[in-house]
Amino acid sequence: MDMQAMMAVYQKLATPGTPHKLLGRLAGSWTTRTRSWMEPDKPPMESTGTCQQKMLLDGRYLQQEYASEMMGSPFTGINLIGYDNHTRKYVSTWIDSMSTGIYYFEGSASEDGNLITQECSYDDPVRGPMLWRSVTRIVDDNTLRYDMYMIPKGGKEEKMMEMTVSRNR
After folding, report:
1. Which of 144, 142, 85, 94 is nearest to 114 (CA)?
2. Nearest Cα to Cα of residue 105 among 134, 72, 65, 127
3. What's residue 167's pLDDT?
4. Cα 57 to Cα 139: distance, rounded to the nearest angstrom
5. Under DSSP, is residue 25 helix (H, G, I), strand (E, B) or coil?
6. Residue 12 — φ and ψ, nearest 5°?
7. What pLDDT is attached to residue 88?
8. In terms of Cα–Cα distance, which of 159, 150, 168, 169 is closest to 34?
9. Which pTM was predicted?
10. Rg from Cα positions in the chain
11. Deepest in the core among 7, 45, 120, 131, taking most CB within 10 A?
12. Per-residue confidence at 40, pLDDT binned at 50, 70, 90?
């Protein structure tokens, strides 16, 4: 393949499309309401917070910056999500103030794009290797629902967290 043909392929893959426009609709200032389970049979911890979302690099990626409280301490986290035109998957990275790891998620969306499911392999320092599964539901232009599950190796899926994210108006 000659250089011009190669560049045409890369240029096509670098062009934001419908999935990127969907993510772009989420830009703005949001409020969060979170319920977290540290143990499946115990009542959840509840908290509120904020989420600032903005598109980066000419509409290619959505940066989500969260701030709230967890177990009585300030908590911040940053998620960077995008759609990879080459693999045709949603990919994201998560970092937060309660760890030093960088978590990589990958997955797909429903046909209408309003349900994004991703998975991440994680080696928990206490419980060992596990799979995290995140489900993002775009309820409407002003409401998101985010659920997180963990599946310990050889174990059953447990709900870790649910978050309702509401656009500030």
Report:
1. 144
2. 134
3. 98
4. 26
5. coil
6. -65, -45
7. 97
8. 159
9. 0.92
10. 17
11. 120
12. confident
